[in-house]
Input
Amino acid sequence: QISQASMGFSASGFLLYALSTQGDGVSQFLCLILAAATVQARLVCNLIDGMVAIEGGKGAKDGPFWNEAPDRVSDLFFLAAAGLAAGRPDIGLLAAVLAIATAYIRELGRAEGFPPDFSGPLAKPQRMAVLTAGTVLAAFYASEWTLTVTLWIIVGGTAVTVIRRSMTLINSLKSR
Output
């Protein structure tokens, strides 16, 4: 249920980013501030979900699905929506694809028996911190320009993360 709530926050964030392109400066400001809050609420859900499942002993048989799938949906919703708000859906979708790729490579490594690789520089927490900061800045300044720069930072850092994790996995596979 906590993981499902995180998808609710990301869907709300998507709507808020989309609405930020409409209306006057005050409504744009409010939508972007609330969108930034939904990014953080999603992360809190993710944190609490893990604590309840692992430390609280409430993990379910389908827990691994609920640990990963909502995160990928949330990555897509938030990053694609930030791209829409920036007037650059292409960059938002590129950021989302790269974010999903980081998780794919981590899980591929786990499937091969290696410990999960959460290395960065832009793993999920750092990506969401950049998105939150960029969204808050966009609320106060030129939103499209600020969000575009934010998304390019996410694309660059996430691409480096994908390459880094890929190289680590390739080296681990070769050293078996």
Remarks:
- The chain has a mean pLDDT of 93.
- Helices lie at 2-19, 25-55, 63-86, 89-111, 124-140, 143-174.
